[in-house]
Structures are given as C-alpha cells and as structure tokens.
Amino acid sequence: MRQQTKQMIEQLLSFIIYRGSTGKDFQELALTLFSYQFEHNLPYKKYCQKRRKTPLTVKHWQEIPAMPIQAFKELPLACESTRTPEAVFLTSGTTNAEKRGQNIHPALAVWDGSMMTAFKQFVLPEQQTAAIYVLSPAEDLNQHSSLSRYLTNAVKHFGTEDSRFFFKEKGLDMEALTTALKVKESRREPVLLMGASSAYVHFIDYCTERDLTFHLAEGSRIFDTGGFKRQSRELSREELYESFSRVFDVGPNSFINMYGMTELSSQIYEVTAQSPRFEKVNPDWVKTLVLDPETLRPVKAGEVGVLAHYDLANWNSCMAVLTEDMGFETENGFVLLGRVEGSEARGCSIAVDELMRANGK
Amino acid sequence: MRNEQQEIEAYFIPDTIQLTSFTTRELESKQGKLILKYPVLSGEDIQCITETIKANQKNYLDKLQTTEVIDLVDAAVQKWLDPDYHWRQLAETWLPVITGYDAEMIRLELKRFLRTFRKKELLRFLVEEFDDPAVLDDFRPRKKGGLSKAYGPDLILHFFSGNVPGLPVWNLVMGLLVKSGQLGKTSSSEPLLPVLFAKSLEEVDPELAKTLAVLPWKGGEDQLEHPAIQAAEAVVAYGSSESVENIRKGVPAHKRFLSYGHKISFAMVGKEALTLDLCRESVHSLAEDVSVYDQQGCVSPQIIYVEQGGSVSPREFAQLLANEMDHYNRKKPRGPLLESEALAIQSFRSQHEFQIESSVYGHPDDTSWTVVYHPEPDFEPSPLNRTVHVFSCTHLEQVYPKLSSYRQYLQTAGVAVGPDRLFKLSEDLGKAGVSRVCAVGKMAQAPSGWHHDGQFNLLNLIRWTDIETSAEQHAEQYDEDSE
Questions:
Q1: Which residues of chain A lie closer than 8 angstroms to B293, CB-CB?
Q2: Which of A49, A202, B182, B410 is the S-S candidate for B433 at Cβ 3.0 to 4.6 Å?
Q3: Structural domains of chain B, ranges and CATH numbers in brackets
Q4: ipTM of the complex, rounded to two decimals
Q5: Do B343 and A326 touch (CB under 8 A)?
Q6: For the segment A67-123, what is each residue's pLDDT rounded down to a tens digit?
Q7: CB contact, 8 Å: B453 with chain A?
Q8: Among candidate residues B300, B159, B324, the one with its CA nearest the CA of residue B229
Q9: Alpha-carbon distance B66 to B56, whole Å?
C-alpha cells in the first residue's frame, strides 16, 4: 500500500471517528480525496476528463463527477490494486446475475470505522450494547455481502452475549426465532431485530399463517434494510411498518431503516424516533445531492431528482456515486422515492423492458 | 397570436345525445388558455351512444355509395390542407402543448400525414385491397361465377394510440371506407385530433358525423368497456402487448379483434451507400427517421446496421450521425421527458460508456440525443426519445441470426443498398419477420394502403356474403316468364 494511501486513510479515519467536523472540513477532505482518486483510479480519471473535470477545475465538492453505478459492474474501480483485498463486496445481481457490481476494499478499517460510528449514532444513541437477533446471513455465510459484514460487526461490537444469528445454511430458522422472541417477551427484555426487509416479509407471513404475535418489551427496535429485490412480495414502507406493529406490538418510534449500497462504504439511516417520517439522514462524512435526470445538475431545493451520494469512506473506488434512485431533499436529509422502473413508453415503439421480457432476459 | 381563453370538448358524439356531467383539464401556453371538457361517462351513456350510432349507420351511412363516402372524406381532408383552417390552427397550437412534441415538427408531419387521405390516395387504398371496390356497395360478379358483397362491421370499437398525432384519423377513415359506425376511445396522451377530425366531417356532412363517437376514458374501465365491446362487431386495439392482451380478454371469441402491438424497426446501410458523397444523404435521412416524433412511432429505427468496406467506416458513420442528430435537435428540439425517461437514457449511456467495446456520442449537457457505436452486430432496443444504436458489421447478412428471437416484434427496415441486393435482402428480412422494407428517410412515412404490420387493413375488417352459381341457376327455375 502506497504511503499516500496510508495518509489518506489516516485523515479519513480521524474525520469519521473523531469528528467535531464542520462543512469546511468535508469540503477540504472531499477535494483531497478527489485528487487522490483522480490520480490513481484510471477509469474514473477518464470519466472525469471526458467531462472536463480535473482537480484543477473542480473547486467545490458538488462539482466532483459522480460515477454511475453501472461502472461498478463493468470496470475495476480501484486506487490501490492488491491481489489480496480484505474484502470484495458484490451487489446482489438481481437485475442481471451475470453482471454484478463490485466494490473492492484493500483494507476495511475505514469501512468498519464508518459503520460503527454511524451505528452508534443512529441505532444505539443511548446505550452501549443490545440483545441483537439477526434474520439475515452473517459474514461467514456470505463473504461478498456488505450487509453480512455489517450485521456481523453489529453483533461483534454492540451485541450482548445472548445476541444470535437465526439465518443458517438452510435459511431463516423461523421456529428458533419464534422461541427466542417468546423468551425475550416473557422476561420483558428488549431486543434489537436486524435483517433485510425481505427476510421480515417471510417471517411476517410465517407468523400470520400461524396466528403468531409477539409483545416485545419496551425499548425493542426493528431494524430493516434494503428493498425486496423480488426476493419476497413487495410492501410499501407504510405497510411494512404496519406489519411490524401488528406482529411485534412495537410503537411507531421503534423502527430503523438503513439505506446502504455495495457501491458505497457508509450507510444512511431513517430513524422514526429521531426524524420526520421517511426522512433519511446521512452521517457527517456523507452528503447527498439531488440531480436533474435530464442534465445531471442539482435541482432546486425540494424538487425530485436522481440521487448522487458523496461518501468520504469510499476511498478506494469513487467517493461520488450516481445512483438510479429518485428522491428529494428535506431539512436534515432526503426522502427516498425508490428506483424508477422503466415507465411504459408513450409510443407504439417497443420499450426495452417489454423486449427483454420477451427474450427471457 | 391571440391571447385568449378557449373551451373545447375532448369528445365527439352524435348531436342528438346530451351528456350531463363533465370535468375539465386546463392547458396554458404563450397563446393563452385552452380548457378541454371531458365527459364523465356511465355504462348507460355508452349503451345509448352505441345504439344511436348503429341506427344512424343503418339508416344513412350503409346506404351511401363508397365513392360518395370518399368524396365526403376528401372534402374534410381538403379543409385540413388549408393552413388557415380553424381546426388545423387549433391543432397546431395545442398539440405541441398536449404532446410535448416540437411545434414545427408537428406542423410538418401533420400536413404530410393528412395528404395521404385525399381522394386519389383513398381510391388507390381501396384498389390495393379490393379488385373491385364496388363490392362494398353491391353484389358483384366473380370471375369463377357467383356474386359477392363485402359488409363492414355495423360498429367498430377503436382503442386509439396516443404516440403519433393523427394516427387515429387513419383508423377513422378506414372505418368510413367500409361504411361502419365507429366509437373511438382516445389515449390520454393525445385526446384532441380525432375529435377535431370528427368535427370536420360534421361540417361536411352532419348526417355522416352522426355515425361517429370519440370518447376519452381511462383504459381498463370495465363498466364502460364492457358495454362498448358488447355493442361492437369489431374491436381494433393499439398498445403494448400487455394492454392489448387485457382488451382481448374482454372480447368474445366470435367478434373480430384486430390488434397492433408494440413493434421495433431498424435500418441497414450497405457499403455501396458509404461513399463520401452518398453517405451524407443517408446520414441526414436517418437522423430524421430517428428523431421524428421523438422515436415514439413503431416505424422509427432504434438500431442502424452499417456495413464495413465503404469509404466511410461504421464508426465514422456513427459520428456523422451524431452531428446530424444535433443539427436536427437545434431545428426541432426534442420534447420534455418524464424523469424516468431521462434517467433511462442516462443509465443507457453509462452502461455503454463503461463497456470497452462501445462508444457513446451524446449531447454533452442533456439527454436530447444519443448515438451508441458498437464494433460487433447485435440486436438491442434503445430507450427511445432520440437514442439509437449503430452496429458495425462485416456484411449486412451477418445480422439475420441476431433478429431471430425478435420475430414477432419486427416491423420496418429502412435500407440503403444497391439494386442488386435489394431483393435478396428483402427476401431474407421478410423471412426474419420484417413487414416493411423502405428507403432510409422514409421510415416514418408509411404510404396509404401499406400492409400495416404485414396485414390487410380493410379486408380484415369486412365479412363477405357470396351468392353461389347454384343459387343463381336455381333461381332461374322460378322465373315464370322463362321459356
């Protein structure tokens, strides 16, 4: 690892962990990281040059070109090339199993630092540990999943001794989870449930079929993440929260939604106890821009557009990532409207989606 | 232009029927304000309207001679060919606001389109499908004996398309030629022009107009569609495979059902067209084919195959095309897009930008046009709105295997090839499923009387009654005066 990289990591870690940051710090560090990535990440450099953006012309972090997520599928995006990265996280590949996006992490120190600092802030602001029950696979079952790393970290660093993973090789052990939740319920001990949104849907269906409900103790939290990605039936956020309340008997202030992407190295949170409904809030080292899909320039405050995330923790690939998610800015963060499906074309000219379906792709 | 407020019905019904409940939609532009008046319909309204139309068809339209119908349509079309005609002016002012298409483009294309419905084109259209068009009026002798007469449906129910302004006029004219009563459901993206055309027919012949209704409703409203389908003898539907399939489900098997689903078109440029002087013309033509109506018509190419071995290479062709797309966009800018449409183009561009093989040429500031060059042939649709693939190929013939999975969707192939290749190429394209081979530059202008999606137009609507020779001869027995 080159000396410059080590210094970069130092700076980022101290910013993320020791904070006390101001907007100016973000700006300075973002420009430093942009210069670093421009210098060492060749495909990104080309992408920037084509748009006439270089460390000489970019004066503000908002001008840093955001790399579209497709690039993570097509190109090796890395500043530090190593044959033995600590982790390579892959996207789920639900849209196209042959082409999965990847984010290479030569070292996970910054990723872990980001995860834990934000986790403390958003998930456990008032306590050091919690009894964590996890519905999704741990790291040992899925080494290429950033979510599994996240969940394993959570249990390792914030979980009490009775924290458990309920996802085994054969899938989610719903019986064991039911029994464990009943024990917690009878002892009136709060629990932090964590897992992918789709995992909850399966468990909720399981409970509904069996007429099972729980009365979780005060202080229990339901943490979910990700969409459904065709792995379960789809619920709106309202419907999901409603099901949580019904099945677990927890109040509207008990929900935490984490928005994470393989292409990023930090997570963004929606905490019902802390923010207005559906508002997602960034940690200090992540900023989100809402761009006009037509021009990719920022929209006026509050208008709907496509989201670009600027994540300082994403030091090895590209800190600025252009998503395909739509949303709008709010006072403390943004509201996610979700991925825009190709709308039905106005015309009789056949649209991509229909043709792809026809061809079984 | 005047700056005033105008109100107009977004529907047309026989003037003997009164509707009572309405909503409005307001449109604003530099020219002022237009209030579109929409009826709130019930199943009983549909029943009443279809019964009236059928009665008027029986008592009036059915008794007209085809030549008389042609004269009436021609008279209405002639009105539209006058630039000062009030409905044409209204259409030219408000269609750009309703559809988002460039005003100049609409003005030009609408004029071109309506010219294909003058008397001489209509006569040609009839002859194209009937050896003797008088079969629509009377029993006519057949060559091998006997006589035949063609009957149009007493009521056609149309589900109009909304992508290309004017297309529903074509459906209405077809229905008139076979002397059918007609009810057309407009698309929300273009509810105006079919109404205006019906008003023109009313100006020419109020009785004729009483056999027509044009109504807007939201597709899939069973309480309206069910009685409409029940009343109709034939149903003609435009739309995506999904929406056409949904309509088909509601149509009983004994009723005639014609559908025009979504299609895809492409172009082929042979090396003989890639000389320095000839190439310019093809590039210009294709930029227009791609850009017209922002590629929303099924006749617009999404893919261009360019052969290697000419003076201009396929990559250079793509670059020239990009230039020409930019010119066209300056003259006739693309309409505004939905966020999802713009994002689809951004995503399409990124996807190809990062594939090492392909190159992306696009407007640097927005998504108004995009050309993606590929060094190997393939078949891939574009996200439309002026985005097009250019595939390089060693021989045009190399392309056929790539087409095979898309057979049911193929429609127009615009070609620029020498005469020695045209027949062989067309033969192979026909086998692949293509229904129309035309010159580049003409892709968006299908002539009247074309085999739309490879089918007959009028012949598919009518039914025949034959008087066989036996009946003729047998009848003679009862002729009391016979010797």
A1: 347
A2: B410
A3: 4-262 (3.40.605.10), 264-448 (3.40.309.10)
A4: 0.81
A5: yes
A6: 999 899 888 899 998 889 999 999 876 656 677 899 999 999 999 999 999 999 999
A7: no
A8: B159
A9: 16
